[in-house]
Amino acid sequence: MNWLASWESFVRVVEAGSMAGAARRLKCTRAQVSKQIGDLERAFGVRLIERSTRKLVLTPSGEVFLQHAQRTLEAIRGTEIAVRNLGEQPCGILRISASISFGRLYVAPLLPRLTARFPDLSCELVLTDHSVNLFDDNIDLALRMTKAPPEDAVARKLVPLKRVICAAPAYLAAHGEPQTPQDLAAHSCFSYLLAGETADWCLADARGNEIRVPVSSRLRFNNLDCVRDAVLAGHGLAIMATYLCADDLAQGRLQAVLTDYEPVTRFGSHVHACYTPSRVRVPKVRVFLDALEREFNPLPPWERLAG
């Protein structure tokens, strides 16, 4: 039995939901897929899939085998990539994921310079504020703002993040500047609309003590650029990362308030470069990491701008 082909057939059957669908993906016949699944079940001595006329259902043994098969196939693919590319010039498609605002401002401008330097390299930038799966979405490297990087990936701290509470001077002139965290409850405060977010803001004082303040606004957005636009227009206050508002603060379009307190968010205090262990020495990933290091160290662009 060709165990590698059989394992891949099993995974594709689960993904496609049928043997016919798996056969189309694998460019073989349904009979070949059925035989491979049967060979696996005979080799293990257990049923992996319960078959019916309507659908295929994994048995408990099949569920356990699926987890191991997926990890094994990914490790094999990663090994092939690493061995094939070791010592070569960067080539192929480099697939990157980043959050919408950060990626647009600081990642997208890097890519033309990278492709100009390496003619055999192409880049794809996937912008989303939701976490992607490095394996399932075929992402070579993801830039994530998180307190908990994925455990099955290499997570390299790329750059620290600082956040401030800010508002337009016109808003503060009309509504007053909050002097204590509790004052925020009387203001229009824009929270980032994302699954799992609460309506409270959390601020840490100089001693690290955290203060939770219930805030509200009649407007909410799931896009940071929309939040920034609303604050610039004088509609309220927001917690913003300085990578997004440093120029506005430097030019006086926005003003930071409650500067003795540090906003605490679920997104953590660093941007992490995350990639699977199999990508560690792949040339296209290595040169992109080098480009990121040059761009963000010793000072990131927004801090150089503010200075």
Please provide a brief summary of the model.
With 307 residues, this protein is an alpha+beta fold.
Kindly describe this structure.
- The protein has 307 residues and is an alpha+beta fold.
- It folds into three domains: 3-85, Winged helix-like DNA-binding domain superfamily/Winged helix DNA-binding domain (Arc Repressor Mutant, subunit A, Orthogonal Bundle), CATH 1.10.10.10; 92-157 and 270-297, D-Maltodextrin-Binding Protein, domain 2 (3-Layer(aba) Sandwich), CATH 3.40.190; 163-264, 3-Layer(aba) Sandwich (D-Maltodextrin-Binding Protein, domain 2), CATH 3.40.190.
- Helix content is 41%, strand content 21%.
- It has helices spanning 3-16, 19-26, 30-44, 60-85, 100-107, 110-117, 169-175, 224-232, 242-251, 283-296, 301-306; strands at 49-51, 56-58, 92-98, 121-127, 141-145, 154-160, 163-167, 189-190, 200-204, 210-214, 237-241, 255-257, 262-264, 270-275.
- The strands form four sheets. The protein has a five-stranded mixed sheet with strand order 4-3-5-14-6.
- The longest helix is centred in the N-terminal third of the chain and has 26 residues, at 60-85.
